[in-house]
Design a protein that fits this description.
Pfam families: ABC_tran. With 316 residues, the chain is of the alpha/beta class. It contains eleven helices and 14 strands. The protein has two domains: 228 residues, Rossmann fold; 77 residues, Alpha-Beta Plaits (2-Layer Sandwich), CATH 3.30.70. It has a six-stranded mixed β-sheet with strand order 6-7-8-3-9-10, with helices on both faces. The protein has a four-stranded antiparallel β-sheet with strand order 2-1-4-5. It has a four-stranded antiparallel β-sheet with strand order 12-13-11-14, covered by helices on one side.
């Protein structure tokens, strides 16, 4: 077992809500998990599940009602713990009248570096997140969402932290931007060895990035462990790939005959993809397909998407 970078034990947080008639709302309920050095750890849940509340507690921005949280064995309320952490909030409000270089250098100065060193570190961080150098001295108000996320990552990295805490880092990005930020996070973990905790409700991103995950629902942990441990809860499905002149007709025929035993996708290009869970159904599917003139391309076993696994670990 590796060194524990984050230790959360029995974390509970209650808020008072309401104006005239106040009542208690429990945002976190006995949450416990650990993150080990060098991990990319995914913190998964729907909006409102308690992810941001947990991250704010880790950053010392709010205090828990009960329980404890430590970073590198130090209480999160200690400035020594926070000095080793880089943080990117979900919706950072950067000063858009600054340039990218000025903003990142400003955050470096806030952590105690002199101006010349802060500018050098800002350049290193912007280079690390692969922001094109021609944009370093542009005002942030002219940046796209994806470019701003790179700047946000740069400010989180500028003090060379041992731990990165990222709140929904891919939220609001288009598919290309999501992939670029996702690849960047993976590269940072490989190249620098930094430990990364990131929250997300975009389950496919977590599947592609994480060593381990914590699935949280209504403030309670539903699953903590490696992704392959979740996958073992369900047999990995099989995909049968077919081609046919009338793909949509073949798909409709198979859907009618197989019912809920299979999922179907038919494309205008003539491809039909049939996903089944029981290997014993393969011969039956092929027989039905041949009846409609379809030809087999491949049969392959595929990994479950985390979105499917999410259903296996949460109450509905």
């Amino acid at each position: 077992m590796g060194e524990k970078v984050i230790e959360i034990e029995g974390l509970t947080k209650d808020y008072e809500v309401g104006f005239l008639s106040k009542r208690s709302l429990r945002a976190l309920d006995q949450l416990s998990f650990t993150v080990e050095r060098g991990e990319i750890f995914g913190f998964l849940g729907a909006n409102g599940a308690g992810k941001t509340t947990t991250l704010k507690i880790l950053m010392g921005l709010i205090r828990p009602t009960a329980g404890a949280a430590h970073i590198f064995g130090i209480p999160v309320t200690s400035r020594w713990a926070r000095a080793r952490v880089g943080y990117l909030p979900e919706q950072p409000n950067f000063y858009d009248y600054l340039t990218a270089r000025e903003l990142v250098a400003y955050f470096a100065e806030l952590t105690g570096f002199r101006r010349a060193e802060a500018r050098r570190r800002a350049a290193d961080a912007l280079r690390l997140v692969r922001l094109d150098e021609k944009n370093w001295d542009r005002l942030l108000r002219h940046f796209s969402k994806g470019m701003l996320q790179r700047v946000g990552l740069a400010q989180a990295l500028v003090s060379a932290p041992d731990l990165l805490i990222l709140d929904e880092p891919m939220s609001g990005l288009d598919p290309v931007g999501r992939r670029e930020v996702r690849d960047l996070i993976a590269e940072l973990a490989r190249s620098s060895g930094v430990t990364i905790l990131f929250s997300t409700h975009i389950l496919a991103d977590a599947e592609r990035l994480c060593d381990r995950v914590c699935v949280i629902e209504r403030g309670r942990p539903k699953f903590i462990g490696r992704l392959d441990e979740i996958e073992q809860r369900r047999a990995s499905p099989l995909e049968i790939i077919l081609v046919a002149r009338e793909a949509k007709e073949v798909g409709a025929h198979l859907a009618h005959e197989l019912g809920d035993k299979a999922e179907m996708r038919a494309s205008a290009s003539g491809q039909v993809v049939v996903r089944i869970r029981e290997e014993s159904e393969v011969d039956h599917v092929l027989k039905l397909a041949r009846e409609k003139g379809a030809k087999l391309v491949a049969v392959q076993r595929v990994g479950l998407l985390l979105e499917e696994l999410f259903d296996a670990t949460t109450d509905r």
